[in-house]
Write a structure and sequence with these properties.
Elements (H helix, E strand, L loop, with lengths): L1 H15 L3 H14 L7 H6 L3 H27 L8 H9 L1 H37 L7 H17 L2 H25 L26 H15 L3 H15 L3 H29 L3 H10 L3 H9 L2 H40 L6 H22 L4 H26 L10 H25 L1
Length: 434
Amino acid sequence: METTQTGSIASVESKSSWRKSDTMWMLGLYGTAIGAGVLFLPINAGVGGLIPLFIMAILAFPMTFFAHRGLTRFVLSGKNPGEDITEVVEEHFGVGAGKVITLLYFFAIYPILLVYSVAITNTVDSFITHQLGMVSPPRALLSLILIVGLMTIVRFGEQMIVKAMSILVFPFVAALMALALYLIPEWSSAAFDTLSFSAAASPATGSGLWMTLWLAIPVMVFSFNHSPIISAFAVAKRNEYGDEAEKKCSRILSFAHIMMVITVMFFVFSCVLSLSPENLAEAKAQNISILSYLANHFNAPVIAWMAPIIAIVAITKSFLGHYLGAREGFNGMVIKSLRGKGKTIEISKLNRITAIFMLVTTWIVATLNPSILGMIETLGGPIIAMILFLMPMYAIQKVPAMRKYSGHISNVFVVIMGLVAISAISYSLYSLFI
């Protein structure tokens, strides 16, 4: 009896202790979230001055942590271990709703994968021609080599994807922090001239405080978004920790978000303090990343060399994380379609089919280099916001397995922020078409 009790205590301690796999997933979550989008965040967040930036710094952690925790809890609420988000949706909302949401989930994430395939090709091509001074290789060949390289990592399975992302986090964070520190001597008081809560329009942006903040919320949401990897994360932790998975997932998420907020917001503040609101407005008008603008503005070769390296690492990390979500959505659509016909397919075979589909389509799009990808990514924004912010909160009210999470003020906060993000994205899209 005593031996059994000792074994039980050891088991509980083992589950509550921090494991190497937890660190790997924490860095994997960070890697998916912090991609190329962070290179535009200082422009979109800082163009209205410091007040919107301070407010966003306060909102960043609760907004992203509570939303992703809600989605994680939703995936964990499935009856059977191993069920991904597409299966849990069908379990809770029925076959019809399951097919619709799986389709939306795929088309919210897959276009972003296409965006990253184009972005990595353009960035590497630019690095070869400008920094290395070499002749630009044939685009079809370059994009094929890059995407085959990324898909080779994918071929080794989920654990290898997460491990590769967690390794890539270190050079990315080091480069981001080195650049933020490098800019400190350039900090000026120009940004402090905007310290006013006035709703009047800023001379630099033409927008008032609340309008700037409203339109910047979606930028921040998607700069910290790692919803594509949440389902794989929740399934892996449920298999590892069983009933203790929810507590462990919340702990891993909290550390990942603290790391995100500290590193990204320091980088953002350093960029904003080294430029004036007019400079940021100019960068926004030029539609270039903050790194490109800084390199031109300060005529700094160091930044010119660091910019593409940071971008390549950021895009690679995010491509791998978004691949997991896109594969999940594609697999879910195929499985549900076959199930309706009374058929099944081996998951290993399906993963191979999915990998071939992703390889061919991303290669074609990367080679063609279409200009509509930004709009496609924006159109996926409202769907991601609905799945990340609103669906888990709706499930808390309607699904018995999630009722235990009801009654918390954080739920109301997530719904409000989700509606704010969706309304701002919708307004931005409306502005494009009028």
